[in-house]
Design goal:
Elements: H1 3-13, H2 18-38, H3 44-56, H4 60-68, H5 74-85, H6 101-111, E1 116-118, E2 120-125, H7 126-139, E3 144-149, H8 156-170, E4 174-180, H9 189-197, E5 201-205, E6 227-230, E7 234-238, E8 258-263, H10 266-282, E9 299-306, H11 314-325, E10 329-333, E11 337-338, H12 341-352, E12 356-362, H13 368-375, H14 378-384, E13 387-391, E14 400-403, E15 407-411, E16 415-416, H15 417-422, E17 425-431, H16 433-448, H17 461-473
Helix pairs in contact: 2-3, 3-4, 5-10, 6-11, 7-8, 8-9, 11-12, 13-17
């Protein structure tokens, strides 16, 4: 050992009871942070997972928790509530059918958005269909275009959309673009400058700021929503971001995904969600817009929103309640499957009760850790009678729940802790046999191409069972 290092080491080891001091410091660190985490009153499993992580990684664990740990954003939540309270109430929608009353009431109680209707609801499968329909609708805009995205990349797809927005902005259409500061981090202000110069407004959701020493950053609290509203008449939402990775015309390995094009009063509720997010992100008063006269449609719909500004986990609750209410079948499609106890219990109970329960997930998703965590739940699901299908070779990115013949939930939320608790998400719940039949045909076709997971599949100890078990331990933190 070099003489300087040896001298420094001798100085440290010569301090009396250095081991005792380090141990006491470690215990004090665990006591203070442990009490703080316990007082958050989160799920016991998640709380214990964080405590174990902090104990195993002294001080480093605190840094991880500081940036990625759960946060109750009370002050921010109050701002969002005030933004919503300042908005005009949506028009009265169509009363739900008797068997849907409980779900509709639950949704309204947890989101503040009532059941309403759509005059049209189109399923857009994959990026080419979504981008084509989106650019066509933008070209017809006359008053305003509102967009909110988690991922917007400055590639060919992003450039085409930017240029379409620039053209409309120059024509006098009010364009507002809200991007998540982390998901769209690769999109620089220089790329968006032509849009700003054309008169559009651009805002960033939870940007990283330089006050981390006295205020925890919002690194882990993102808007995962994908919303477009055009003239208050046409709306888009679902799972498809703005990126070449989701356009099968540009990439053979493009994500398999699902989106919605909507018309009717349901667009008004998407507008309310965007206005609230815009007011929250910019600090401006809520926008007051002219909306078209209410038009009662034939498709019963209800917008679902959730995020860390509410403790109700509305989208999570609606998924679980919908599964419990099913009488014949439950088909779930999700790219990230990391269920909590309530969601796992709902799926297995439905299968044990004799329902046709199917789970469609990607064979390999874009997160190895999530893939391992998801597969750790397969044995329990298979034992209960759930049919698990793994879709490939393309990455499956669709997010949809189908129950019986008349209920569907489609949106941005994955079936995992992050979407249910950390992200700001938006989905739409439908009560319509025609739409559900179309969705069922789509899912059936994908299941036909996705082999079922067999209970007797090979599961080597060190390459499968151990990695899956370890990934499952951290699943509450994913």
């Amino acid at each position: 050992m070099p003489e300087a290092l040896q001298t420094a080491w001798n100085s440290v080891t010569s301090i009396p009871n250095i081991g005792l001091y380090l141990t006491l410091g470690w215990l004090g660190y665990l006591l203070v942070l442990g009490l703080y985490i316990a007082l958050q009153k989160r799920e016991p499993v998640a709380t214990l997972s964080w405590l174990i992580s902090l104990a195993a990684l002294p001080y480093i664990g605190f840094v991880i928790y500081f940036f990625l740990g759960p946060q109750r954003i009370t002050r921010q939540r109050l701002r969002r509530v005030r933004a919503r309270a300042a908005l005009p109430p949506p028009p009265e929608g169509l009363h739900p059918t008797p068997d849907a009353i409980e779900l509709a009431r639950l949704a309204q109680a947890t989101t503040g958005l009532p059941p309403i209707t759509a005059t049209r609801a189109d399923l857009l499968v994959d990026g080419a269909a979504k981008y084509g329909a989106l650019l066509e609708a933008i070209a017809q805009a006359r008053e305003h275009i509102h967009l909110e995205y988690y991922i917007y990349l400055p590639d060919r797809t992003g450039t085409a959309l930017r240029d379409a927005l620039v053209e409309r902005a120059r024509a006098g259409v009010q364009v507002r673009l809200l991007l998540d500061a982390v998901g769209s981090g690769r999109t620089k202000r220089r790329f968006l400058q032509p849009l700003v110069e054309a008169g559009a407004e651009v805002a960033w959701f939870h940007p990283m700021k330089l006050h981390w020493f006295w205020k925890r950053p919002w690194l882990n609290l993102r808007t995962h929503r994908k919303i477009v509203v055009i003239d208050g008449q046409v709306g888009f939402t679902g799972g498809i971001n703005i990126t070449d990775e989701e356009d099968e015309r540009l990439r053979e390995d493009a994500y398999r995904d699902l989106h919605l094009r909507l018309e009717g009063d349901v667009v008004r509720e998407l507008q309310l969600v965007f206005i609230e997010d815009w007011a929250y992100a910019t600090g401006q008063p809520p926008l007051k817009l002219h909306n078209p006269a209410p038009v009662r449609g034939t498709i019963a719909a209800q917008v679902l929103v959730s995020g860390p500004d509410s403790s109700w986990e509305a989208i999570h609750r609606l998924h679980v309640a919908a599964i419990h209410s099913a009488q014949r079948r439950v088909w779930l499609v999700t790219p990230y499957f990391v269920p909590g106890e309530a969601a796992r219990m709902a799926l297995t109970s439905a299968a044990l009760g004799g329902l046709d329960v199917r789970l469609l997930v990607p064979k390999v998703c874009d997160s190895r850790l999530v893939t391992l965590a998801a597969r750790s739940y397969f044995d329990e699901l298979l034992e209960a009678g759930v049919k698990v299908h793994e879709y490939g070779p393309r990455m499956l990115h669709s997010k949809a729940l189908l129950c019986d013949d008349d209920l569907a939930i489609i949106g941005s939320a994955n079936f995992d802790h992050r979407s249910f608790r950390l992200n700001f998400e938006v989905s739409v719940m439908f009560r319509d046999r025609g739409l559900v039949a179309e969705l069922a045909e789509l899912i059936q076709g994908e299941c036909n191409l996705a082999p079922r997971v067999r209970p007797d599949r090979a599961q080597p100890l060190w390459t499968t069972r151990v990695p899956e078990a370890l990934a499952r331990l951290v699943s509450p933190l994913l």
